[in-house]
C-alpha cells in the first residue's frame, strides 16, 4: 500500500492563464506566469534544495539553500522568490551553488542536535534530507560555542537553550531543533489566519514564540496543526508520532466532524492510526485542517466505547451483554409485536448525519420497506430543515449553491447566524485569507464573534441584532436594496418571475420594513442596516454564508426565503464568488437529507405522494410504499406521549441531549416500549433504551459523506471495526431478520442502488469517485462530472421565486420573570453534543459549558466571573458557571451545549419553525441568578444516568 | 425521575402549528394562502396528526385561524387504515 506521497512544489501555484516557457537544466518547461523558478523546476521533476519554502505558504527566501544561477543575470538569486521569465535559462546545480549550499548547511547543522537516530522526525526530516542532498560530510565550525542545543555549556547554564513546550495535548515544541525557517509562523498567518506565532529576537537570538513568549496552550493558538505540518524538522511534532513512530502506509479519507468535509490522509502503522494529515488535493480543505479533524480522533479507541450488544427489558434494569444474534432477534420481535399490537405506524427510526450516505439510505429503506411506514427523520430536523424548505421553494433545490473554492472570488461576504471560526474552522480560514486580500465582510449575529473582530479581521458592518429578529433585519436589507434602486433588474427579468418580484418589491417597500422601523425591533441602528445593504448590493461578488442562527427559529424557513430573495435581488447567483451557502453542521447532514431521511420525501427530495417516484422503489423493493408522510422527530415524541408511537430505531443520534425541551424528549422516550440505540457510547438517549447496538467509527468502514457544498467524498476503512460490524452491516442484519432480502456485500453496491433510483446521483459510483476524487451532485447526464456551482443558466425550478417575508415575533417573549434572551452556539474545540470530543484531549480547551453574560447584566445580579449561576426558563432550569464578557449585548446571554452535565436543552422550549418544526434553539427567555451548585434536576438526572448505565457483570457503570 | 407536564398538549400544539403555517400564508393573496396552508399540511403532516386535527375541526375548530378553517376543506382526511 505505502504512503500517499504528495509533491511539495515549494511555492503556491499561480492562477495566471498566461503561459511562460523557460529552460531549467536543459529541459524546456511551460508554466503559468508568476510561477517561481523553484516550482517550475519541480514541475519539470527537478527538486531544488530548500528549507524555508513549502507550497502551503508564500515564498520567503530566508534559508539561502534554493539558490540558482540564471544566464545573463548576476549573482545567485533564490529560486523560491524569483518568478519565471520567458526564455530564461536556469541552472540549478553548479560548482558555485554546491559550495554555497554546503556552507549554508554547515551553519545550520553546527547549531542542531545530532540525535537523528532517536529523533521523532527520523525518516521524515527535511533538514536530514537536505544534509544528504548537498553532500554535507563534516562541519568545520565544530559544535562547541554559542548554541541553542544544550541546556548547559561546560557545566554553565546556557541561556539560549529553551525547554521543550509540551503544553499542547497533541504536539510538542522543541526549540533546540528549530532552524528558524518561519514556516510555522507563516502557516499560522497565511493558512490558518490566527497569527498566534511570531519570531522574537534578532539574528542568532531569533526564536519561534507562541504569543508573547507563552506556552502554546496559553497562547492564541487554536491547534489547527498547520504549523506542525509546515515544520521541516522535529521542532513541532505530533505526540502520537513521538510515541508510535513514523507511519508506513496511508489512506485518503474524509473527516467525520463538521459539514466542511475535509480530506485527510490517515497515516497508519498496521491498524494503528499514527496521525491524520490534511490532504492537499482535498477540494473542500485544500490541505488545511482544524483541531478536531487533525487531532481529535482518540474517541475511536476510548475505553468507554461499547463493543458488545446489550439488551434489557426495563430501562431501570442494568444492561445485559448479549450476542449480536440475540440483540437482533430481540429487536425484530419487539418491533413486530409493537406493530401487531399498536398498528403499523407505531414504530419509526432516525437516521444519522454522522453515518455514511450508504448507512443512512439503508435505515430509511428499512423503515419504508420493512416497517411499512414513513416514520423516518434525521438530525437535520433540528438544524437545517428550514434550508431545505426555503431554498426548495425559492430556487428548486435543497442545498447550497457554491463550492468552497468560490470564496476565493468573493468581494463581499455576508455571514448570518454563523460563527465559522468556531464551527466551520477550515472554511473560516479560507474566508479570512480572502478578507486579508481585501474582500469586505458583513456579520449579522447577536454576539461579537471572532468573525467580527480578530487578528487582521474587522467586519465592515456588524448587525448585533436581538435574537429572534432575523426576518425583520433581512427584510429591511431588501427594503434598502429595492427603495434605493440597488437591485439588478437585468438578472431579475431574465431569471426570476417578474410579477412575483413586483409583488415582493411592493411588500418590502412598505415603511414598516424600513431600517428605521426595524431598528426599534432589532436594536440594530438604521444606518448600519443601510450600510450593509448598500455594500452587499454594490460591492461586487456578494456571497451569503449562514448557519443555525438563521434556521433554528420560529421563522427559520422565512429567513432562508429572505436570504434567497436577497441573492436574487442583487443577481448574486449562478457564478463564482456569489451564492447562498448554508454552513452544514454535521459531516453528513447534507447526505442524510439527500438520502431520503425526511418523512415526506424519498431520496433526491422527491415527495412521497408522487406515484411515479414510489413506483421506482415499489418495483425494485417488491413492496407497496405508504403514500402518506410520516412523523417528524418532534411529532414522534408527541405521539409517544399520546401512546400511539412505541418503538424507535436510532442510529448515531443523541436526541435526549441535542433536541430541545429535554423533559419532553425524556417523557416521549420513557413512554416507548422499545428504544434501540446504535452508537459508539452509552449516550444520553441510551439512558432510555432497551437495546444498545454498538456502532463503528468512520475509520472502520467504507462509504461516502456529502459535505455542505454537495460534494460526495469517499470514506475509507483503515481498521477493522472494534465492535465487529460496520453500521450498514448492522442495519442489514436487522432487515434480514425482518425477512427482507438484502444482500449487500459492500457499500459500493448500496451507492449503485442510490444512483440507479435517484436522478441527481445517476453518474455516481465508487469507480467514478476513485477516478474523480470527489464529485458534487447533481451528477448525471446533464452534468457528467458534477456541479460545482448551481443555477448557472437558470434556477432548477425554472424561474426564481420571490416570496413575501413578513416578520412575526416569536411567542417566546421576555418579561419580568424571564428578562434575558438566551441564545446557544458552539466553540471550536468541541463538537455538537460532545460525545466524541469530550472523549479526547480537546477538553484541555473547554472542560465545561459557560454562560456568557454582559458585565451590566452580571452586575445587576451581583455575579462575578466564574460564579455558579442558575439559568431558568419557562421549560426548566440548570446551573453552570458564568463568564462575564461584552461579546454579548446587554439583555442577551449565550452558552454552548457540548456537555451533558449542563443540559442546556433543559432550558430551551418546544417552539419551532412554522414550516419544518425545526426547534427554536436560538431564542429562550431566561432569568439568571446566583447559585450554590448543580440544581435538583441535574442531580436527579445524573443519578438516573448512572443507574441506567450499569452493565451486569461490570463493576462500575461506564460513562 | 419524574417529568412535569409540558406546556402544550399534542392537540393544542397542532392548532398552534396550523396557525403558525397560516400566519406565513396570510401574506399571500387569499386563495393562494388557503391552498398554501392545505398543501403544507397535506405534504408534511402524517395521518394521525391530520386525524387529530379533524377531530378538533369537527368539534368547531376552537382557536384555529380563519385561514386554517378555510383550508380544512382541501386538507386530506386520513384513510381509516392509515398509520
What does this structure look like?
The complex is a heterodimer of chains A (959) and B (83). Chain A is an alpha/beta fold. Chain A has 29 helices and 38 strands. In chain A, the strands form 11 sheets. A 7-stranded mixed beta sheet of chain A has the order 15-14-29-28-27-16-17. A 6-stranded mixed β-barrel of chain A has the order 33-37-34-36-35-38. Chain A has a 5-stranded parallel beta sheet with strand order 22-19-18-23-24. In chain A, helix 13 runs antiparallel to helix 16, helix 13 packs parallel to helix 19 (556-569) and helix 16 (515-522) packs across helix 17 (526-538). Chain B has 4 helices and no strands. Chain B has helices at 10-25, 30-44, 47-58, 66-71. Chain B is globular. In chain B, helix 1 packs antiparallel against helix 2 (30-44). The N and C termini of chain B lie far apart (31 Å). The model of chain B is unreliable at 1-6 (pLDDT under 50). With 83 residues, chain B is an all-alpha fold. Chain A: It is an enzyme of class 1 (oxidoreductase). Chain A: GO terms for molecular function: formate dehydrogenase (NAD+) activity. Chain A: This is Formate dehydrogenase major subunit.
Amino acid at each position: 500500500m505505502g504512503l500517499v506521497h504528495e509533491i511539495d512544489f515549494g511555492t503556491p501555484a499561480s492562477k495566471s492563464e498566461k503561459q511562460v516557457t523557460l529552460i531549467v537544466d536543459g529541459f524546456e518547461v511551460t508554466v503559468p506566469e508568476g510561477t517561481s523558478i523553484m516550482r517550475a523546476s519541480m514541475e519539470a521533476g527537478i527538486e531544488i534544495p530548500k528549507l524555508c519554502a513549502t507550497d502551503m505558504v508564500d515564498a520567503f527566501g530566508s534559508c539561502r539553500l534554493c539558490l540558482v544561477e540564471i544566464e545573463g543575470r548576476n549573482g545567485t538569486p533564490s529560486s523560491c522568490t524569483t518568478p519565471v521569465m520567458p526564455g530564461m535559462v536556469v541552472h540549478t546545480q553548479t560548482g558555485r551553488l554546491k559550495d554555497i549550499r554546503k556552507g549554508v548547511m554547515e551553519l545550520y547543522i553546527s547549531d542542531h542536535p545530532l540525535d537523528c537516530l532517536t529523533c521523532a522526525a527520523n525518516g521524515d526530516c527535511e533538514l536530514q534530507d537536505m544534509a544528504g542532498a548537498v553532500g554535507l560530510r563534516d562541519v568545520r565550525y565544530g559544535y562547541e560555542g554559542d548554541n541553542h542545543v544544550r541546556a548547559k555549556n561546560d557545566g554553565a547554564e546556557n541561556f539560549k537553550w529553551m525547554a521543550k513546550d509540551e503544553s499542547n495535548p497533541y504536539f510538542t515544541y522543541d526549540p533546540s531543533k528549530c532552524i528558524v525557517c518561519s514556516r510555522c509562523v507563516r502557516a499560522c498567518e497565511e493558512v490558518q489566519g490566527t497569527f498566534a506565532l511570531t519570531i522574537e529576537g534578532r539574528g542568532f537570538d531569533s526564536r519561534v514564540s507562541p504569543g508573547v513568549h507563552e506556552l502554546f496552550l496559553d497562547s492564541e493558538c487554536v491547534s489547527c496543526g498547520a504549523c506542525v505540518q509546515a515544520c521541516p524538522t522535529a521542532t513541532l511534532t505530533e505526540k502520537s508520532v513521538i510515541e508510535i513512530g513514523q507511519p508506513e502506509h496511508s489512506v485518503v479519507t474524509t473527516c467525520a466532524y463538521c459539514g466542511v468535509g475535509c480530506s485527510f490522509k490517515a497515516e497508519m502503522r498496521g491498524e494503528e492510526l499514527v496521525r491524520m494529515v490534511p490532504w492537499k488535493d482535498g477540494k473542500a480543505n485544500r490541505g488545511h485542517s482544524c483541531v478536531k479533524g487533525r487531532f481529535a480522533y482518540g474517541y475511536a479507541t476510548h475505553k468507554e466505547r461499547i463493543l458488545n450488544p446489550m439488551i434489557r427489558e426495563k430501562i431501570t434494569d442494568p444492561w445485559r451483554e448479549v450476542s449480536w444474534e440475540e440483540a437482533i432477534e430481540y429487536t425484530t420481535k419487539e418491533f413486530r409485536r409493537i406493530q401487531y399490537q399498536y398498528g403499523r405506524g407505531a414504530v419509526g427510526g432516525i437516521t444519522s448525519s454522522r453515518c455514511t450516505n450508504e448507512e443512512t439510505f439503508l435505515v430509511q429503506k428499512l423503515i419504508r420497506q420493512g416497517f411499512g411506514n414513513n416514520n423516518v427523520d434525521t438530525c437535520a430536523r433540528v438544524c437545517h430543515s428550514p434550508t431545505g424548505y426555503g431554498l426548495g421553494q425559492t430556487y428548486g433545490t435543497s442545498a447550497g449553491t457554491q463550492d468552497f473554492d468560490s470564496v476565493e472570488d468573493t468581494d463581499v461576504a455576508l455571514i448570518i447566524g454563523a460563527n465559522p471560526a468556531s464551527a466551520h474552522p477550515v472554511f473560516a480560514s479560507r474566508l479570512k485569507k480572502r478578507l486579508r486580500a481585501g474582500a469586505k465582510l458583513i456579520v449579522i449575529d447577536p454576539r461579537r464573534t471572532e468573525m467580527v473582530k480578530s487578528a487582521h479581521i474587522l467586519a465592515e458592518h456588524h448587525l448585533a441584532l436581538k435574537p429572534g429578529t432575523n426576518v425583520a433585519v433581512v427584510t429591511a436589507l431588501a427594503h434598502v436594496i429595492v427603495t434605493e434602486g440597488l437591485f439588478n433588474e437585468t438578472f431579475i427579468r431574465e431569471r426570476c418571475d417578474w410579477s412575483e418580484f413586483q409583488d415582493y418589491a411592493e411588500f418590502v417597500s412598505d415603511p414598516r420594513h424600513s431600517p428605521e422601523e426595524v431598528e426599534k425591533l432589532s436594536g440594530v441602528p438604521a444606518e448600519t442596516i443601510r450600510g450593509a445593504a448598500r455594500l452587499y448590493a454594490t460591492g461586487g461578488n456578494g456571497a451569503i454564508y449562514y448557519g443555525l442562527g438563521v434556521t433554528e427559529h420560529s421563522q427559520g424557513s422565512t429567513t432562508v426565503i429572505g436570504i434567497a430573495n436577497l441573492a436574487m435581488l442583487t443577481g448574486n447567483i449562478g457564478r463564482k464568488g456569489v451564492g447562498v451557502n448554508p454552513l452544514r453542521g454535521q459531516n453528513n447532514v447534507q447526505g442524510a437529507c439527500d438520502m431520503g431521511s425526511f418523512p415526506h420525501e424519498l431520496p433526491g427530495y422527491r415527495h412521497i405522494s408522487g406515484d411515479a417516484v414510489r413506483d421506482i422503489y415499489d418495483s425494485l423493493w417488491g413492496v407497496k410504499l405508504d403514500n402518506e408522510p410520516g412523523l417528524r422527530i418532534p411529532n414522534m415524541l408527541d405521539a409517544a406521549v399520546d401512546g400511539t408511537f412505541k418503538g424507535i430505531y436510532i442510529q448515531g443520534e443523541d436526541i435526549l441531549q441535542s433536541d430541545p425541551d429535554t423533559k419532553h424528549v425524556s417523557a416521549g422516550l420513557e413512554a416507548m416500549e422499545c428504544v434501540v440505540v446504535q452508537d459508539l457510547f452509552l449516550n444520553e438517549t441510551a439512558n432510555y433504551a432497551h437495546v444498545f447496538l454498538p456502532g463503528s467509527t468512520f475509520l472502520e468502514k467504507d462509504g461516502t459523506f456529502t459535505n455542505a457544498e454537495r460534494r460526495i467524498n469517499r470514506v475509507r476503512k483503515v481498521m477493522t471495526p472494534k465492535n465487529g460490524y460496520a453500521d450498514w452491516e448492522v442495519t442489514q442484519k436487522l432487515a434480514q431478520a425482518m425477512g427482507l432480502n438484502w444482500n449487500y456485500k459492500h457499500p459500493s453496491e448500496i451507492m449503485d442502488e442510490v444512483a440507479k433510483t435517484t436522478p441527481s446521483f445517476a453518474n455516481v459510483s465508487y469507480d467514478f469517485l476513485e477516478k474523480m476524487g470527489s464529485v458534487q451532485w447533481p451528477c448525471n447526464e446533464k452534468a457528467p462530472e458534477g456541479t460545482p456551482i448551481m443555477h448557472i443558466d437558470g434556477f432548477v425550478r425554472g424561474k426564481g421565486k420571490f416570496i413575501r417575508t413578513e416578520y412575526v415575533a416569536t411567542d417566546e417573549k421576555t418579561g419580568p420573570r424571564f428578562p434575558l434572551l438566551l441564545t446557544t452556539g458552539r466553540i471550536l474545540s468541541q463538537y455538537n453534543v460532545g460525545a466524541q470530543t469530550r472523549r479526547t484531549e480537546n477538553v484541555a480547551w473547554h472542560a465545561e459549558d459557560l454562560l456568557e453574560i454582559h458585565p451590566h447584566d452580571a452586575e445587576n445580579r451581583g455575579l462575578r466571573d466564574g460564579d455558579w449561576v442558575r439559568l431558568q426558563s419557562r421549560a426548566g432550569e440548570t446551573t453552570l458557571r458564568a463568564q462575564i464578557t461584552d461579546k454579548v449585548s446587554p439583555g442577551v446571554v449565550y452558552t454552548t451545549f457540548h456537555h451533558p452535565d449542563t443540559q442546556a436543552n433543559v432550558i430551551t422550549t418546544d417552539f419551532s419553525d412554522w414550516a419544518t418544526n425545526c426547534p427554536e434553539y436560538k431564542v429562550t427567555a431566561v432569568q439568571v441568578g446566583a447559585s450554590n451548585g448543580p440544581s435538583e434536576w441535574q442531580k436527579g438526572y445524573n443519578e438516573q444516568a448512572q443507574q441506567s448505565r450499569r452493565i451486569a457483570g461490570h463493576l462500575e457503570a461506564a460513562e | 425521575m419524574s417529568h412535569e407536564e409540558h406546556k402544550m398538549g399534542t392537540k393544542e400544539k397542532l392548532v398552534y402549528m396550523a396557525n403558525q403555517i397560516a400566519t406565513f400564508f396570510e401574506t399571500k393573496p387569499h386563495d393562494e394562502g388557503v391552498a398554501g396552508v392545505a398543501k403544507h399540511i397535506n405534504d408534511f403532516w402524517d395521518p394521525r396528526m391530520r386525524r387529530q386535527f379533524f377531530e378538533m375541526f369537527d368539534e368547531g375548530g376552537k382557536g384555529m385561524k380563519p385561514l386554517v378553517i378555510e383550508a380544512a376543506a382541501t386538507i386530506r382526511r386520513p384513510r381509516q387504515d392509515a398509520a
